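Listing S7. Sequence submitted for prediction.
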Amino acid sequence: MKAAIRSRKAISPLIATIILIAICVVGGLIVYSVFMSTSSTLSAKGQISVEAIDLVKATDGTVTFSITVKNTGNKPAESLTVQLADESVQNLQVAGQNVSADNPLQPGQQAVLVYNPSGDYVVGNSYNVVIRAQFSDGSMFVDTKGVMCRFG
């Protein structure tokens, strides 16, 4: 019986070490691949930044409000509205049409709104502007900025 045990050979320590290193490298590559595929999905975000905003009251009393926003996220915006003070909500436009599911604001694109609000705005006063965007995945982005009415 003793002779049978001695005739069996074990794997050499060098080969065992190489196999273990190979298993660790392959496992690490699999973990890296899974992490990178899920992190790119999770890092998708919707964000809108205000590029320019202005509220001007002319000598004849007419008021002009203008705003330019940019989609700085990486998802298209399917709805983009602005509300100045207590005025009604206004839709922003891209390429001459309202931002919508059929005409979304793509990442990197700008949208513009220019209109004459009906409220009584006082030169020197600051007014809140609320920007709301809804993105293709249903997520929302809301930001509030202040604009000072100036004489022009």
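Caption to Listing S7: primary sequence and predicted structure tokens for the chain studied. The first helix runs from residue 2 to 7. The chain has a mean pLDDT of 89.
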